Amino acid sequence: MDIKNVSRDIDDFFVDDNDPKGSGFQVKLCADLIVYYDGNVYPLKSNRDGALDFYHNALEILKPELRYVLIDGTGRYKKITPKTYEMLPYWACDDCPTRLAMGVHLDGGDTPESRSDHSFYFKEGWGGCLRMIVPVEFILDNPKGFVELAVKMCQRLRFETGQGGFSLHLHHDYGTNGIHIRKLSQRFLGLDIGSPFYWSDTLIQGIKTVNWLTLVGDRLLKKIGGRDGLRERLLTDIPVHDLDHGVIIQAGPKPTLGDVNAGDDISYYRRVSRVLEPIRVPPEILSRLNDIGGRNNTRRWMARFDNNPKLWMDRFIPINAKYGDDENDD
Fold this sequence. Notes:
By secondary structure, the protein is of the alpha+beta class. The chain has one domain. It contains twelve helices and ten strands. It has helices spanning 3-15, 48-62, 87-92, 136-140, 143-154, 179-187, 196-199, 218-221, 226-234, 267-276, 283-286, 295-302, and strands at residues 27-38, 68-71, 78-79, 102-107, 119-124, 127-134, 161-170, 213-217, 240-243, 246-250. The chain has a ten-stranded antiparallel beta sheet with strand order 3-2-4-5-6-1-7-8-10-9. A hairpin with a 6-residue loop joins strand 2 and strand 3 (78-79).
């Protein structure tokens, strides 16, 4: 897998798409760890220890590269100052007035609109989410170390679902329901796609997808027999890492992009997906979602690892091609 070539092709592919800020930045291939929690049942103050574990461990890795901050509601990036890093711990402390919604996005790059694969994201409303974005090499150079880091970051966190592996860093103004995202989602099956802000309220009710690492909280695990039932279904060659309030399921020794053109092996991902299918986002909710290349494509994408999936493409997909088949997908 030549990650550098894939990353360059993805950069080139999106240059001709609708550019939100005139900078050429829509998406960046990255690795990430993202967790979703119930902001109504376990808001930040009652989830403080776990949330701050995630935050401080992420900062140890990201801080040298972070340059800009976007606070939800302000609409523009500002330069990070030392006080920026005190914001989330203050929101989590007992002295902070109760907030119904809050969010902060810390980003790298030479300018606010630069492509960056160093980022931290926090959002809380009805649903909450925490996300760390790192370069793909961070996982590829030390897969075992990334798993150990994920366990450390999430050990005390009360969460519902989450993923870790290859993903996309999306520009905050970029809409992902168009053909560019649709084609990308059909080519790279091991790539997690979608806006965390869009999904955070939904994923307290079921899992969105599996990735190399899939996090499932104890509440959802009860629906498939708890931790013991999960292990019985997965068998012993798929590691399950225990956390205080759930598990991390590891689909193989290292992540894969699941490139359909290259015939990447996604058998581990399929096995995990088959076991977790009963706790996927409920159909009545799924029917309203269109974040991954349109409503129909979103539904197909979420089922792409099913045991006998229906293929919706019948040809190779050259990621750097300019497509003329901009079909409607609503």
